Amino acid sequence: MRRFSFIGVKVTHRDLIKTVESELDQMVELLRQLVEMESPSTEKQAVDRLGHFLADHIRQCGLEPRFEQRSTVGDIIWAEWEGSSPERILVLCHIDTVWELSSLQRNPFRIENGRLYGPGIFDMKSGVAATMKIQEYLNRSLLRPRKKIRFLYTTDEEIGSNESRALIEEFARQSQMVLLTEPPLAGGVLKTFRKGVADFTLKIRGRAAHAGLEPEKGLNALEELARQIVRIQALSNPELGTTVNVTKAHGGTRENVIPEYAEATVDARFRTLEEASRIEGDMRKLSPHIPGVQLEVLGGVNRPPMLRTHRTEELFAQARLIAAEMGIDLREGGTGGGSDGSFTAALGIPTLDGLGVNGGGAHAVDEHIELAALSERVALLARLVERL
Ligand SMILES: [Zn+2]
Questions:
Q1: pTM for the full predicted model
Q2: Fewest 10 Å CB contacts: which of 134, 180, 188, 234?
Q3: How far is the CA of 252 from the centre of ligand 1 (A)?
Q4: For residue 86, how far is its CA from the centre of ligand 1 (angstroms)?
Q5: What are the tens digits of pLDDT across the range 85-133?
């Protein structure tokens, strides 16, 4: 077995990439297994099955898998590699996907034209596979980080992280930095800031009446909804990067009845906390256009914006240097999509997100990763874990 160490034997980054590359087939096989264990956030049994697979792997790597039981979503799993320093890096992943069971039938795991396809492969089973390889390298002493490395695998990221948020925040507070192997931006660009997300449900209660006999006795909840939709869409502020969109609506019962009820869901994204509270305030202040109609607004901010703090800036600069030594030009950017990195960054813990494998089509049928990027990204993650 080859050993890499910075004390004594000088080890080149190229050697590490070569080792990773020589095991590419194994990694593709591991990815196939992960993808074929479907794990929609809402299917506890299925997610737990994947969790046990992961736990077995962790055990084989000489670490002890810990389970945090959950009743409505899959059990959360974590493990820690003991470094010599009291400092800690938190490596954060989610093993749930947005894909329903049997999505594989339409969208099987496959390799086509240098791309690997399959439900959840980009978001974020390839990122999970990368962390599993890191555990192997630690066990084989290919990596010898100074810091403790804590791997945390949550199970409800795609449905808002209600069951994992407290644990994520607790672990982040015990860490000096957080690395997420979520999908990167196009070309492998890291995410150092993210918009925050708020979700609302608007419920509208009018009054039913016969549409032909006495429509004037009704209060048309759908008409009210139509007017509210226009108001709500106008809460957007593109200049500040705030988007507000009505994403789902329904109402009414029969063709000849004035609808007494209608409701809509609203998705809002913002870069700053000021915009978050403006949107929340404006949503709560919505008043009915039609006298007598009742409005109810539920929901609020789900994830705060992931701010690019000074400490995150410094962490990225360090990561960029390490990548440059490997011949990788690491870049950073931002996105409108939320992630659990938003929680850790909001606590002031420097957070690098998007360390997963280059690809595209998150949450879409052409979801894929680039085979050519796989080795380099795993090697990069390995080096970051060791050197940061
Ligand atoms: Zn994700």
A1: 0.85
A2: 234
A3: 36
A4: 29
A5: 999 999 999 999 999 999 999 999 999 999 999 999 999 999 999 999 9
